[in-house]
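Below is our example:

___
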Amino acid sequence: MFPSDLISAFFLLSEVSIGLMGNSLLSMLYIHAFLSQPHLKKPVDTIFTHLTLVNILSIVFRLIPDVMASFAVRILFHDAVCKAVLYAYSVTRGLSICTVLLLSAFQATTVGSNLRKWAWLKSKLESCIFPSFFFIWIINTFLYIPMVENIKGQINFTLVGSRNSQTYCRSNQVRHHTTMSLVTALMIRDILFVFIMMWTSLYMVTLLFRHNRRTQHVHSSISPQAPSEKKATHSILLLVGFFMFFYCANTFVTLYLLYRPKNSPVLHLISGVLSSGYPTVCPYVLMNNRKIISKFISSFSNLKCIFPTRGCHG
């Protein structure tokens, strides 16, 4: 193993550890909150939970194979394993962009629920969350199957000049019209979804700005849910911003690698880091702006008060 491979492996391992730790902790906190305080569960928390699950799968199928490849684990270089890994990552990547889109659309509707034209849509959107999860899982599961045909394991470690999609896999040139049409459709979908995210984000920013300006001039009572909704909106705006940054940066690096005549291990490492940057950062953005940790600590303290301890006597 070369020193550069060892450095890359430990760098990726650190990102894997940070990402899995944050998403796993956040998932457990949400599950605990759902079980202990189901009456306080909000529809947006269900989307957050699904997002953490998708983040875990994205990190597992994107970074862990790169770490194993850096340590020259040869099982990844077999054709079947290579196809399975890249297919699973493609599916989770599609699930990620669909979930973020659903999250931004739902919150934009929630923030604008005070407007009459959005009030009827909010109740319908809440009842469509689980059917939406089922729909995006089915669509993304079957959507990427034709692309697997163009993926092969890179048995030859000394292969030079190929246009790799991963260090352990390589993509054949797209020969079939159906596959080319699928790639074009996926690009159009991603661009459309990113545009909708930008539109919903600008819409939420506009509503928040109007609300702040109104509260500065009119000193009236604000509903108890307003601060929580405002914090949730700020979290989602940060998530959408991080998603668009990592998505655009990774797309730029990937396209550059596609048309680059020679391989670049450094750019492949950057591509891996960027593609997993969002699922790594996502849980910490949510934990910073949500009350789920304080709720967990308070419920844990209440649980200890069940037992006769001195600290629980009033």
